[in-house]
Amino acid sequence: MIRNHQWLYGMFILISLASPLSAGAETLQQAWDVALGANHSLKAAQESTVAAAKRLEAAKAARLPRVSLAAGYTALENSPAIRTSIGGPPIEFPIADRESLSYQAMATLPLYTNGQISSGIDAADAAFSASRTQESGRTQDLKLLVAESFVGVLRTTRGLDVANSRVVSLKAHTQDVENMYEQGMVSRNDLLAAQVALADAQQAEIKVKNALDIAKSAYNRVLGRMLYQIVALDDLQPELFAEPLEVLTERALRQRHALIALQDHVLALQHQAAAIRAETGPQIALSGGYDFQENQYQVYEGQWLINLGLQWKIFDGGVTRHKAAATQQQAMVLQEQYYELVTQVALQVRQYWLDVQETHERIPVTEKAIAQAEENLRVNRDRYENGLSTNTEVLNATTLRTRTQNNHANAIYDAVLATLRLKWSVSEL
User: Fold this and answer.
1) What is the pTM of this model?
2) CA 261, CA 8: separation in Å to the nearest integer?
3) Tell me, what's the pLDDT at 243?
4) Which of 41, 115, 152, 353 is most buried, by the most CB atoms less than 10 A from its CB?
5) pLDDT at 24
6) Does domain 2-76+95-425 have CATH number 1.20.1600.10?
7) Nearest Cα residue to 169 out of 205, 201, 192
């Protein structure tokens, strides 16, 4: 009877560990597509990029002519007049109306700004590039978050399979012990120990069921779905990222989005500092237009005009110089952060690369351990059936087999995660 039960739950374990999920299960790529279309943080990053693009267009527009219209109506207490005396008593005569209408249309074109406009454009362009890079980095971060949630569901699902198989195994063993007890072949203590072990396995199964529900809810939240939506996922298999560590590290330092974005921010601040310093240089602009001032005493009320103007801020108490220095200092702060991040990225690549190697070494070891644990359990049950082993040894063998099954599942999904994280670390997820 024991051998029959052993064959049944052995088949159950093989089916639960080896069989793929249903054909309609969601793949990781499908999960990424859903998350990328629904995630609010990513949408915020996209809107930030749009805003940066608008700021760049605004900076470029500073090179174009500015056209303005102005109009007004003025009412004075007294009409403007002048007093004069020409060989006689003083006399007064008006020079303008007490009430008058005026309007003006002017166009102004900057001819030379000492590099202020060009530096502003370069700063806005660098900021736009940084924003786009950050958006791409946010996409990579989101894909990793989805992948971790995806693997979390798979891991917990496999854990529930293992917990179920343990319950099935202990139920069969408890039934066998009960039959043997009724025949007077074993003591009541054996039966109680088997029943306690079964109860412990059942409560562990309940805990894993709860953990699986939480993992599925977390997965649905990442994808922007209702927390209670049904989750069925396609299984993932480990893949070996076999490139040398030095190659991966060099590639990560060259294309990691966070590093590129920091460099763009540094460049943007440097250009901003140059634009601020340019304020103290000569500014030349050409303006022209039409001006009308209602005045019956004036011969020409409306006139066309043109003006070539020069403005040069010679001294402002050091305000501009200090503002430029402060902006340049901010660029130096980001540059130091960049150097710090370089070491962090290199460490991440090394850590995940080593994790890939370690987990792929663990998989065959845990596979072999499962076979050994199965054989150990079979031997102990045979010995127990023949009175050569104790019930405690059988229960310990069952626990050992459960541990090896969990170790194997963890090795598989640790390997999957290690590869995904390694790809993320080089911005290739």
Assistant:
1) 0.82
2) 58
3) 86
4) 353
5) 75
6) yes
7) 201
